Amino acid sequence: MYRTNTCGELNMHNTGQDVILCGWVQKSRDLGGMTFVDLRDRYGITQLVFNMETNKEICEKARKLGREFVVQAIGKVRERSNKNLKMSTGDIEIEVNELNILNRSEIPPFTIEEETDGGEELRMKYRYLDLRRTTVKNNILLRHKVSQEVRKYMDSIGFIEVETPILIKSTPEGARDFVVPSRMQPGTFYALPQSPQTLKQLLMVAGFDKYFQIVKCFRDEDLRADRQPEFSQIDCEMSFVERDDILNTFEGLARYLFKQIKGIEFKEPFLRISYCEAMEFYGTDKPDLRFGMRFTDLSGSVKGHNFAVFDTSEYIGGICSENCSEYTRKQIDELTEFVKRPQIGAKGLIYLRYNVDGTLKSSVDKFYSQEDLKKWADIMNAKPGDLILVLAGDKKKTLTALSELRLEMGNRLGLRTKDKFFPLWIVDFPLLEWDEELKRFYAMHHPFTSPVPEDLPLMTTDPGKVRANAYDLVINGVEIGGGSIRIHDAAVQKSMFKVLGFSDEEANEQFGFLLNAFKFGAPPHGGIAFGFDRLVAMFGGQDSIRDFIAFPKNNSGRDVMLDTPSQISNKQLDELQLIIGGKNKKKLL
Question: In this predicted structure, what is the pLDDT of residue 513?
Answer without folding.
Answer: 87
